[in-house]
Specification:
The protein is 81% helix and 0% strand. The protein is mainly α and 72 residues long. The chain has one domain. It is flat and about 35 Å long. The protein has four helices and no strands.
Length: 72
């Protein structure tokens, strides 16, 4: 469990860096949503994991991935 919590803390650090240093609020929100899903998985909360995954899938379907097409 300590490793799970440490990983969630690292995700939180990245979320804050994206928001504050990179000034990329969209990526920061994405990291936050992923972090919530990971926390639900780490807590073995199957219902919450399914609920969050369903919402993440909706965002993935409507997301603009054009920036990835030009990535090196």
């Amino acid at each position: 469990m300590a490793e799970r919590v440490a990983y969630i803390h690292k995700l939180n650090e990245m979320q804050v860096k994206l928001r504050d240093e990179a000034q990329d609020p969209v990526a920061s929100i994405g990291f936050g949503l992923f972090k919530m899903w990971i926390a639900a998985v780490a807590a073995n909360d199957n219902q919450l994991t399914r609920d969050i995954a369903a919402h993440l899938a909706k965002y993935s379907e409507v997301g603009d991935l054009s920036a990835l097409e030009n990535a090196p």
